[in-house]
């Protein structure tokens, strides 16, 4: 089998733009087919919203990776091209390609000529269905969620004006796929990251790494100038604070 280069450098025809540089994010193609797992199993009272939790049995094998998962999804969108008509590579070659993708910037896209070609699959979703362990092992450890440089921001107050600015910024820049840190600090009911990929006036479509089969909707309430996160299997739903991470040196 031919060697698979980490990045092909053929120049496109003059004036051509690679499809990956102009296409919209597709939830069912550009996300992982496996979830970030939870250490705890949650139950919520449907009337009061109060919850209880117990440790999952058996324990999860891939937990505390929510920040790693959303960052990696954005890196694949920014830096890779899937080529289903090329022959599949070996596991070792795929490991090298994964490392090459996640070693690149989580903010700036690669030019068309420098994108990493991943053969044998039509999308990240199909690739992750076939090789979940390669991706789990190659995208980064749980420590990267704890050490994410923007974590410091959640300990400071977030004013209603700040949340209003965040909503406006994300509406303007939704094509950049902002990653939102969702918190209720100092309460610990949620400390999570989602990737935003679509926006209307007051709703943001989100990829939640804990839920791989469908997108979620993060709602902004302009009257109260706050965000509302929906009820899930791990959160009772309700008001949250949100700010962008993987954006600059401090976030």
Structure description:
The chain is an alpha+beta fold and 251 residues long. It folds into two domains: 24-33 and 64-144, no CATH class; 149-245, no CATH class. The chain is 26% helix and 22% strand. The protein has a six-stranded antiparallel β-barrel. Helix 5 crosses helix 6.
The DSSP helix count reads: 8
Helix content: 25-40%
Count of extended strands: 10
Give the count of structural domains.
2
| Global mean pLDDT | 88
Rg calculated over all Cα atoms: 19 Å
What gross morphology would you assign?
globular
Biggest sheet character: 6 strands, antiparallel, barrel
What order do the helices and strands come in, and which of them pair?
Elements: H1 19-22, H2 27-30, E1 40-44, E2 51-55, H3 66-79, E3 80-83, H4 91-102, E4 116-119, H5 124-130, H6 132-138, H7 143-146, H8 160-172, E5 179-183, E6 191-199, E7 203-207, E8 216-221, E9 226-229, E10 238-245
Parallel strand pairs: 3-4
Antiparallel strand pairs: 1-2, 5-6, 5-10, 6-7, 7-8, 8-9, 9-10
